[in-house]
Structures are given as structure tokens and as C-alpha cells.
Amino acid sequence: MTNKYKIEAPVRTFSGDSVGVTFTKGTGFVDDSTKEGRAAIEYFRRHGYGVELSDGKTDEERAQEIVTGVVGQRGPIVTDEPFDPSKHDAPEVLAYLDSLGADDSDAVAEFARVIAAEREGKARKTILARGEQKQEAGQ
Question: Which pTM does this prediction carry?
Fold first, then answer.
């Protein structure tokens, strides 16, 4: 069985090739079906990249699925309880963060709240790096 992996580069703005994997805006995909693919996965793990199994869904689809339970549904994210990053795996948290708009002060505050909760909880590198990138970008 072949597994596909999502690779998150430490520099989220990186676009180009590394170890035979093409990255766009810090994200690349590789599968373990070949010796080269398996070697690339191990290389990325050793060098601090985020390496996670990918189910082939886009971040937007994953975010919608987390919030609504229905893939493909559009519209504002509305929940009864605040999003708790400790109850989700890293790709789900990243997808949720990506679903928050940068134009609205409520979304900016929610982004900051989730990053703070992550910092005080599991403190996963890929999620905290997303917060640092947004801060560096002045958003």
C-alpha cells in the first residue's frame, strides 16, 4: 500500500525543489512507493520539516469538514464551542487556521487565540511556525 505524505517546509514561503520534491508556498507532497520517495521522507523528518500522512484533501476541504462535518459546504465558520487545537491533529489545525480570513478582526483574534492555545498545549512546531510566519508578515 502506498502512502502519500504532506511535507511542510520550515520556511513557509519556499517554492522550488528539494530532494526531488516540489514545494509551493512551503508545502510539498511525496509518496513512499519508491526508494527515492522513502529517502526523501526520512530526509525531511531528520531536518525538521513537518511530515504528515496526507489523505489527498485540500486544506479548505479539511477545514470545512472539521467545522461542519460536510466536505464542500461553503459559508462562514460557526461553532458553539471555541476551536480547541488539542482535540485535532496538526493538518486539521493548520487547515482551520488557513480558513480564517485576514481581513476581519474577529478572524485575526481567533487565529491568535488558537496559536496561544497551541503554545500552551501540545506546542507542535508546524502550527507554531504558521503563527510566526503570519506575525513576520505583519498580519
Answer: 0.44
Strands 21-24 and 16-18, bridge-based pairing: antiparallel
Mean pLDDT, consecutive 10-residue stretches, the chain (139 aa), reads 86 91 89 91 91 73 66 48 84 82 78 91 90 72
Instruction: List the one residue out of 122, 73, 134, 135 whose CA is nearest residue 98.
Output: 134
Please report, as a single letter, which amino acid is at residue 120: E
Q: Distance (Å, rounded) from C-alpha 122 to C-alpha 76?
A: 27
Amino acid at 71: V
Query: 30 — phi, psi (to 5°)?
Result: -150, 150
- For residue 67, give the 3-state DSSP assignment: helix
In sign, the C-alpha dihedral spanning 109, 123, 135, 9 is negative
Nearest to 67 by CA among 58, 54, 56, 76: 76
DSSP 11: S
Q: Which three cell numbers stand for residue 107?
A: 478572524
